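Assess this today:

___
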Amino acid sequence: MIRPRAGTARITGCGSAVPGGGFEQGEVWDRFFARHCGGGRARERVFRAAGVRRRHAVVNPLVEDVSGWSTGQRMRRYAAEALPLGKEAVAAALADAGVAAEDVGLFAVVSCTGYGTPGVDICVAADLGMAPDVQRLVIGHMGCYAALPGLGTVSDYVVARRRPAVLLCLELTSLHVQPSTGDMEQVVSHALFGDAAAAVVVAPDPEPGQEIVDVVALTDRGTADHMTWEVTDLGFRMGLSPQVPEVLARYVAPLVTDLLRRHGLELPDVGAWAVHPGGPRILDTVGEGLALPADALDASRRVLAERGNCSSATVLLVLEELRAAAPRTDHPAVALAFGPGLTLYAALLRDTAAG
């Protein structure tokens, strides 16, 4: 088992927020995307098989079609919509952790769906009353896995400075609906993505929480074109090869087993899995590659069904789901996320008591 160590960083609070404009997957196909994507049984089958039942969006396509908007228009909408969601998620995480905003030493914001200065980091910090000397960090355009390098960065700060930090992942993917096309990659993207903000507070020991034991990464540069996120004049365009699950199948088991072996652990020692639900095939690939029990990825599947793939925020939503549903345990947890590069990230977490 993992031994307690001096100088640790621990997740002590979680919070999330979604916009109010939710829509059902079947309805949005029937009333918007069937026409937008050119219809056809094959496209409808892919759309309805995405593992998503309901999503939330700042731009509900049943009400507002932004597919012809310029990138500048989309960024202005991001600025207007992101602040209230970010504030809500961070305030909830601070309350959950019992940490005052003015005590935060570092505020890190992750997003690949919107940019601007002064940005969410400055505005949320000011509105919630973080101190003028709070350090800020913006992590941009890394994609769906970005929460885990963000978590590693804020945990290093907490260990080095002995002050609490906040990580906010805020993604408004609905702003990037692309112009009408029958391209199956775009059908898949339009079927999966939703909007959300998710935040965690990371504090130094002796606070109880989930210790961030280790974070590791692996990038296959030879498959960089399998997943892309291109800035265009009409928003950001996702490129998503159907070969992505095959690449993950090649690397996920070696990555996780090496991470666990570094800490004297094996796969059966893991008590919980927070896997980024990039889609049903991604979850099936991870489950099969790691030979996980049938219910091991239930939390990931629930988040996918009720929120969709919310890019970097999603793995934090899964961690929040696990934290709310599961009792404290002596068994460690593993978080996994994937994205452009093609990149895999994994984090090892361990429940700890105070001290």
Summary: Residues 9-204 form a domain with the Peroxisomal Thiolase; Chain A, domain 1 fold (CATH 3.40.47.10).
